[in-house]
Amino acid sequence: MHTYQTNSPEAVSRILALTMIVDGHLSPSEVHVMHHSKYLEQVQIDDDTFDRTLRQLCEDLLGAAANRHAGMVEIDPRLMDALLLDIRDPLLQIRVWRTMVDIIHADGHLDGREATLVRRAARAWFGQIDAEDSFTTAALAT
Known about the structure:
The chain has eight helices and no strands. By secondary structure, it is mostly helical. Helix 2 (about 30-35) runs antiparallel to helix 6 (about 90-105). The longest helix is centred in the middle third of the chain and has 18 residues, at about 45-65.
């Protein structure tokens, strides 16, 4: 797995890219939301950085997959948690989390794997012990 500096544009890009692919496919509507988000400008992520980081994430996940030929790559929850720890700045965590929610809502379908990632992020960043807490559930329902 590529390593990036904590709170770097690449670390943020990787979390957002993971949000886009965690459900097993890359939705055009999610790509559109990502590339037209004012958030990317705020954290100084250009399209090239995001696209490069997305490609590296896919390569890393395929390289670590136990059964690449099965047509699915399962993402270990411990890996999700480790990647989330690359974002430590509290304001950045809030912005990234909100963008993650925007991404998962972009295609009009909430996949269980997307909800799991967003809940794990809320737990890692905001100290929510209960993954079904009302804050996370309300945000996912919007």
